[in-house]
């Protein structure tokens, strides 16, 4: 990083940035998992409706 070479970021700053990136990746993965669960539940409910009504 150019900022580090200029002395703008310390080692602690970089560690915090990396931790933040990991946290964001974890949140995105969790959101994707929740979206998949919601889609599967919706599909299952539609199949049950079709089975009961059809």
Describe it for me?
- The structure is a single chain.
- The chain has 54 residues and is mainly α.
- It has one domain (2-53).
- It has helices spanning 2-5, 11-53.
Number of helices: 2
**Average residue pLDDT:** 91
Q: What is the SS-derived class? A: mainly alpha
Number of separate strands: 0
Low-confidence stretches: none
**Rg to the nearest angstrom?**
22 Å
Helicity, as a percent range: over 70%
Topology:
Layout: H1 2-5, H2 11-53
In short:
The protein is mainly alpha-helical. The protein has helices spanning 2-5, 11-53. It has one domain (2-53).
Task: Throw out a few tags for this protein.
mainly alpha; single chain; 54 residues; 0% strand; 2 helices
């Amino acid at each position: 990083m150019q900022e580090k070479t200029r002395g703008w970021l310390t080692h602690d700053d970089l560690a915090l940035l990396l931790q933040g990136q990991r946290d964001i990746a974890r949140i995105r993965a969790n959101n994707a998992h929740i979206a998949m669960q919601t889609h599967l539940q919706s599909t299952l409910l539609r199949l049950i409706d079709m089975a009961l009504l059809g």
